[in-house]
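Worked example 3 (structure in, sequence out).
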């Protein structure tokens, strides 16, 4: 599956020319309607018009995608105004699923802790039995202590009974724990969330990528995929597993910060992230990579007394329904490898044609 690669040289952030101001929001304000409401109504009509112009059905999903994409071209004031409205909306189904997954895992952790506490209690009771046996042997060498020996023998019997009850209950709890573990394992196989980095997981990403390929085939629009990784040279120079984990988590937060609601941000594995950019052509994906690279480059990480400038490498590819999900993933991997090969670039594009 031959392809072409192109890359973009790293920019010196200090030398970057300030971008031109974006378009201003439309100022038309119908009578009897507030300015905020009129702006969003006009924008919604513009989104619908763009959908129809691109020969896409105005379904809720497509409308949401175009709503996010076109908003990037609007003024800061309009974006802030609309984002403040969106924050008031209820969480979507995916967010509800994530909360359910987290609650389930927390419940399982509580059961695990309860089992551990019960096991410790059983061990302590066993230790008490051994102590009583030892004291009984010590008193046996003193004839005058026969009455005390009798009391200890009775207490020893009581402790043995309690131990037997605890052993049975511990066994029952172990069975419950094992059954719960099987349920949690089954749920984990269907989860969509990566707890470590608080983004989507690989399974969810591949599912959404396959779905997007079907939509691309059906409606013939452009979508892109980018792969992001903390610079291998930076990780090598740090040589600190804990610090690397913290920096990678910082990258994950920045990915979420720069992404649109329609983008899928996922942890692919081993600190490598992938973003599915729906309804986004390669040119727009390159611009997104530039913004992300600049955002990361302007973010510093402190390790003890050392200030470290974060760096990432990015691979970019197109979502082409001609190929399989695996081939598209390989293509974006080719892009990130090209970015590493050329030391003066922050991202590279791998195109499949």
């Amino acid at each position: 599956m031959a392809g072409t690669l192109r890359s973009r040289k790293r920019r010196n952030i200090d030398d970057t020319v300030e971008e031109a101001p974006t378009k201003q929001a439309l100022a038309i304000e119908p009578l009897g309607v507030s300015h905020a409401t009129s702006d969003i109504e006009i924008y919604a009509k513009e989104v619908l018009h763009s959908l129809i112009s691109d020969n896409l059905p105005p379904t809720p999903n497509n409308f949401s995608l175009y709503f996010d994409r076109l908003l990037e071209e609007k003024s800061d004031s309009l974006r802030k105004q609309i984002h403040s409205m969106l924050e008031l909306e209820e969480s979507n189904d995916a967010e509800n699923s994530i909360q359910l997954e987290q609650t389930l895992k927390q419940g399982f952790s509580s059961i695990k802790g309860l089992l551990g506490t019960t096991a410790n209690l059983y061990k302590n009771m066993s230790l008490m039995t051994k102590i009583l046996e030892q004291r009984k042997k010590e008193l046996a060498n003193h004839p005058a202590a026969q009455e005390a020996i009798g009391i200890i023998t009775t207490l020893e019997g009581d402790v043995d009974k309690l131990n037997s009850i605890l052993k049975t209950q511990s066994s029952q709890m172990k069975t419950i724990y094992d059954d719960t573990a099987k349920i949690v394992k089954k749920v984990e196989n269907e989860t969509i969330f990566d707890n470590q980095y608080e983004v989507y997981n690989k399974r969810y990403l591949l599912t959404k990528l396959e779905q997007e390929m079907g939509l691309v085939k059906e409606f013939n629009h452009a979508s892109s995929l980018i792969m992001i990784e903390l610079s291998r040279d930076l990780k090598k120079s740090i040589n600190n597993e804990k610090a690397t984990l913290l920096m990678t988590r910082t990258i994950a937060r920045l990915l979420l910060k720069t992404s649109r609601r329609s983008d899928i941000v996922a942890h692919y594995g081993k600190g490598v992230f992938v973003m599915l950019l729906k309804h986004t052509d390669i040119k727009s994906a390159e611009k997104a990579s530039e913004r992300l690279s600049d955002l990361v480059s302007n973010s510093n990480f402190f390790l003890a007394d050392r200030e470290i400038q974060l760096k990432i490498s990015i691979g970019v590819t197109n979502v082409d329904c001609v190929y399989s999900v695996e081939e598209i993933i390989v293509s974006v991997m080719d892009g990130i490898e090209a970015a590493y090969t050329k030391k003066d670039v922050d991202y590279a594009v791998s195109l499949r044609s």
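Notes: The beta strands are 3-9, 193-194, 199-200, 224-230, 264-269, 272-277, 300-303, 306-309, 312-318, 345-352. The first helix runs from residue 35 to 53.
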